Amino acid sequence: MFKQPENKQIQEQTQILVLDDEPSIRWVMDRTLSQGGYIPRLAADAPEARQLLKNHSIRLAFVDINLPGQDGLSFTREMLKKYPSLLTIVMTGESTMYTTVEAMKSGVFDYLPKPFNIEEIEELVRRALRVPLKIKGSAGTKSEKPDDDLLTGQSKAMRELYKSIGRVAATDLTVLIQGESGTGKELIARSIHRHSLRSSQAFVAINCAAIPSELMESELFGHEKGAFTGATERKHGKLELASQGTLFLDEIGDMPMNLQSKLLRVLQEKQFERLGGKELITTDMRIIAATHQNLFHLIQNSQFRTDLYYRLNVFPINIAPLRERKEDIPVLVEHFLQKGSKEMAVGRKVVEPEAMKVLTNYEWPGNIRELENTVKSLMITNVTGTITLDSLPKNLLTPECLSDSTESLEEVAFGKLEQPVKNAVELNSNLLLAEVISQVERPLISLLLQQTNWNQQRTARILGINRNTLRKKIKTLGLK
Ligand SMILES: Nc1ncnc2c1ncn2[C@@H]1O[C@H](COP(=O)(O)OP(=O)(O)OP(=O)(O)O)[C@@H](O)[C@H]1O
Ligand SMILES: [Mg+2]
Question: Do 171-318 and 323-402 agree at the fold level?
C-alpha cells in the first residue's frame, strides 16, 4: 500500500484520471489511489473522460488502450494535444510490440501491460509525479500498423526494448545495438526504421562481416566507371542508396580500420565521393549499427576507433540473451509454430508440456535464431501434430534441461544453510563452519554431479578442488 504522503498538501490536490471500461480495474485503481491520498477520477469511456478532463485539473491519466468503440491510443494523442502537460500511462491487456512502440512514440509517460499489481501502480504514480510540470510536445507520427508484429516477447527486457524503440524511432539519433548472435539485432533495426519518419524510404543493410574487406569500400561508397579494373559501370553504393532512409551497418565490429576512418568522415560531414569520382554527394541518412562483439575490447586491441564508437553510440540498445529472459521462450515457440505453418504450408503443431519444459530450460547459445531453426526442423520432421519430448534434438536432452528444478546452486545452498546457522546461533556454537559445510557439502556435490552428468573432472573444477579430493568425498558421503 502507499506510504502516507510526505507532502500532504501537494498530494491532496493531485487528481488522477482512470479511463477503463473494466469495472474491476476502476475499482482497484479507485481504492489504490484514494489510499495513496490522491483524488481518483473514474471514467468508463472516452466521452466521460473528456468531461472529467474539462472540469478538473488532472495531472495524470491511466488510459486503457482497448476501449470499446474507441482506440485508446488515438484518444491519448487527442488528450496530449489538448493538455500538453498531462502525464499519461497507457494500459493494455493485449500488450504487443506495436502498441508499446506506438504508445511511447505518442509521448506517453509509460506503458503498463495488464495484469499489473498494486505495487507497480504505486511506483508508477510516484515516478510520474516527480516529473516537473512542463509543456511537452506530442511526438510522433503514426506508422502503418503492420500485419504482424516483428518482435515477439513479453519479458521485462522485451518490454523495455519496445519502449526504447518507441522513444528513439521518430528521432534521427544514431543507434548502436549490441547483443549476442541471434538475439534479434537486425529485427530491432528494421523495427526502428519501420516506426520512424523514414519508413517510406529505403532500409539499406550492409553486413561488414560478410563482405570481403577489399570489396566493402565500393559497396559502401559506390564507384565510377573505370575506377578500378572490373568497374565497367557506375555503381551507387549503400551510402547513396540509403540517402533519405536508414543505413544499417551490421557487424560494425568487423569493419576494417581504414574504412572506419572513412565512415567517420561521412558521419561528420554528411558528404562523400564515389570511388574514382570527384562529385561530392550529400546524404541525409539515419545510421543504425549493430554488433555481437564487445567494442570496448576491440578498442583496447586497437581494432576499433574510439571516436567512431562515440559517434555511433548515441542511443545504445542492449538486447539480453534468450537465456536471461526464458519466459519469452514459450511465446516465441508459439510464434514460430504459427509462422512456420504459414511459410512451410504444414499443419498446425502443438508442443507437449514436457517438451516445452526442455525447450524452456535449454540455454540457447545461438539465441532466437537457434530456437527458430529448431522449431522449424521439428515441424518438418513431425507427422503426428504433437511435438513430443523424444522428438527433440538429443543435445537438448541434458539432465539440466530435463530436471524439474530450475533452482540454482546458490538457492540450494542457501536453503540448506539457514537451519545450521540458526542452530549455531542458538547453541552459541563455535563449530558453525564445520557444521554448515557438512550440511551443504552433500547436496552441493550431488547436484553438481547430476548437472555435469557425473563428469568428475568438471565437478572438481567447478568446486575448485582436485579430482582425488572429490573421489574421497564421493566415497565418504556415499554418493552414487
Ligand atoms: N523477439 C523476436 N521475435 C520474433 N522473432 C525474432 C525475435 N528476435 C529474433 N527473431 C528471429 O530470430 C532470427 C535472428 O534474428 P536477427 O537476425 O535479427 O538476429 P541478430 O542478432 O542480427 O543475429 P546474428 O548475430 O546472427 O546476425 C531471425 O529469423 C528473426 O526473425
Ligand atoms: Mg544480424
Answer: no
CA distance 54 to 314: 40
Residue 431 pLDDT class (50, 70, 90 cuts): low
Which of 158, 176, 329, 369 has most ligand 1 atoms within 8 Å of its beta carbon, as the pocket-test mutant?
Answer: 369
Which CATH number is 171-318 given? 3.40.50.300
Amino acid found at 410: E
Q: How far apart are CA 334 and CA 311, in angstroms?
A: 39
- Statement: 409-477 belongs to CATH 1.10.10.60: yes
**Domain 323-402 CATH assignment equals 1.10.10.10:** no
Q: What are the domain boundaries of the chain?
A: 8-129, 171-318, 323-402, 409-477
Most distant CA pair in the chain, distance = 90
pLDDT digits (tens, 9 = 90+) for 369-404: 999 999 999 998 888 889 999 999 999 998 888 887
pTM above 0.85, yes or no: no
Cβ of 325 less than 6 Å from ligand 1: no
Cell 510490440, located at residue? 97
Residues 143 and 190 sit within 8 Å (Cβ to Cβ)? no
Tell me, in angstroms, the distance from the centre of ligand 1 to residue 168's CA. Answer: 20
Ligand 1 proximity of 153 Cβ (cutoff 6 Å): yes
Q: Whose CA is nearest to atom 28 of ligand 1?
A: 369
Q: With a cut of 70, say whether residue 162 has pLDDT above it.
A: yes
pLDDT digits (tens, 9 = 90+) for 318-338: 999 999 999 999 999 999 998
Domain 8-129 has what CATH class? alpha beta
- Type of residue found at 395: N
